Amino acid sequence: MTDPVTRRTFIGTSAAAAAAFAFPSGIFAQGSDVIRVGLVGCGGRGTGAARDCLTSSAGVELVAMGDLMPDRLAQSREQLAKAASESPDFASKYKVTDDRCFTGFDAYQKVLATDIHMVVLATPPGFRPAHLTAAIAAGKHVFAEKPVAVDPAGIRTVLAAYEAARQKGLGVGVGTQRRHEAQYLETIKRIHDGAIGHVVSGQVFWNQGGLWSHEQAAGWSDAEWQIRNWLYFTWLSGDHIVEQHVHNLDVANWVIDAHPIRAVGVGGRQNRTAPRFGHIYDHFAIDYEYPNGVRVVSMCRQIEGTRSRIGENFIGTKGRANAANQIFGETPWRYQAAARPVSPYVQEHTDLIASIRAGRPINELKQVAESTLTAILGREAAYTGQELTWDEVLNADQVLAPPEVGFMSMKVPAVPMPGRTKLNRKWDDA
Amino acid sequence: MRPWTFPPLPVCGLVACLAGAAVVRSEQASAAPYHESIAGTLVGFEMVPVPAGSVVMDEAGGSRTVSVGAFFIGRMEVTWDLFDVFMLRLDTQSASSAADAVARPSEPYGAPDRGWGHAGYPAMSVTRGGAEMFCGWLSARTGRIYRLPTEAEWRRAADLASGGVPLSGATRDALAWHQGNASGTSHPVGRRKADALGLFDLFGNVAEWVTTGDGPAVARGGAYTDALGEAGPKGRAVQDSTWNQTDPQLPKSRWWLSDGPFVGFRLVSTGTGDPVPAVTTKEGSTP
Question: Given A172, B30, B37, B284, which residue has the most CB atoms within 10 angstroms?
Answer without folding.
Answer: A172
